[in-house]
Amino acid sequence: MRIGGLIGTPIKVDHAIELGARAKFARVCVEVNLTKRLLSQYKVEGITYLIQYEGLDNTCGECGMYGKSTAKCTCQII
Predict the structure, then answer these.
(1) Which of 34, 37, 42, 71 has the smallest set of CB atoms within 10 Å of its CB?
(2) What PANTHER family does its record include (predicted)?
(3) CA 60, CA 40: separation in Å to the nearest integer?
(4) What is the tens place of the pLDDT at every residue in 30-49?
């Protein structure tokens, strides 16, 4: 839940995470503000962890804004 709080408002954690059954990833349900940038990664004790969002396919991978794919986002225009 603490790590989910870095991304948004944590709602629930996958039961397998609570039991320590998953070692490679954590699945957390988090409410995010889609008018703000979405984090793509975070660091804990010097280790970088990548964040993957389910159900948010229409998000720019460069600037993290929801609503346009990376190819169509205006952040790409110089």
Answers:
(1) 71
(2) DUF4283 DOMAIN-CONTAINING PROTEIN, GLYCINE-RICH CELL WALL STRUCTURAL PROTEIN 1.8-LIKE
(3) 10
(4) 998 888 888 888 888 898 98
